[in-house]
Write a structure and sequence with these properties.
The protein is mainly alpha-helical. It folds into 2 domains: 34 residues, no CATH class; 149 residues, Nitrile Hydratase, Chain A. The chain has 12 helices and 4 strands; from the N terminus they run ααααααββααααββαα. The strands form 2 sheets. Strands 1-4 form a two-stranded parallel ribbon. A two-stranded parallel ribbon has the order 2-3. α4 crosses α11 and α5 packs across α6. It binds fe (iii) ion (FE). Fe (iii) ion binds next to loops. The site of fe (iii) ion (FE) has 6 residues, from loops.
């Protein structure tokens, strides 16, 4: 009769899985292999796409729009009225498949964006979404306990500030307009944009600080 130690087998099983890529990573790799094999894409196309969304778009488009809204009250009104149109105006074409709603943080309100169903996100304005945005935990808890989630991001919201949670869908996506930091009165658009982070536009960061800007954050043109 064969005997085995169930716990030891389980530990070996966990250990083996620990060295494998995650299941989604394996599925993506398999999908990429099929697309390349069928000559629908080349590996270089995929690398260029990832590179564009990770490094070239990043949150730069959104940050430029936020900076302009801080400097130009008329533009800000247009942005809050029709986000897609305002982004169009800045040369970032809106997507026909969803409406972009921009929600403004104020001294009395903090906005937090989530997609409870999957991971809807304005990719063309903010670049790749962070892994935590797609996690089951964030998607479930952002609605149930937004203040608790924010505290884990280091954002403590005092009781008299209202927290509004916006649930994205494939037809409606959101972007947070953060508050302009103190001490930036004479800053130009490029310098202001360099302060704006991806998390601030999702709402998992509230306070942007003028002192957080380092020389490396500015491009040669923006410096
Ligand atoms: Fe989604």
């Amino acid at each position: 009769m064969t005997s085995y130690d169930e716990e030891t087998i389980s530990a070996i099983h966990r250990e083996l899985h620990g060295h494998l890529p995650s299941e989604p990573a394996l599925r993506v790799k398999a999908l990429e292999s099929v697309l390349v094999e069928k000559k629908l894409f080349t590996s270089a196309d995929i690398d260029n796409w990832v590179d564009a969304y990770t490094d070239k778009i990043g949150p730069i488009n959104g940050a430029e729009v936020v900076a302009r809204a801080w400097l130009d009250p008329d533009f800000k009104a247009r942005l809050l009225g029709d986000g897609g149109k305002a982004f169009d105006e800045m040369g970032f074409p809106s997507r026909p498949d969803f409406v972009l709603k921009v929600v403004e943080n104020t001294a009395a309100v903090h906005n937090l964006v989530v997609c409870t169903l999957c991971s809807c996100y304005p990719l063309h304005l903010l670049g790749m979404s962070p892994a935590w945005y797609k996690s089951n935990e964030y998607r479930a808890r952002a609605v149930r306990d937004p203040r608790g989630v924010l505290a884990e991001f280091g954002v403590d919201i005092v009781d008299d500030v209202e927290v509004r949670v916006w649930d994205s869908t494939s037809e409606r996506r959101f972007l947070v307009l953060p508050q302009r930091p103190a001490g930036t009165a004479d800053w130009d658009a490029a310098k202001l944009a360099a302060l704006v982070t991806r998390n601030a536009m999702i709402g998992t960061q509230r306070d942007l600080m003028a002192g957080d800007l380092t020389a490396g954050d500015l491009t040669a043109e923006g410096a």
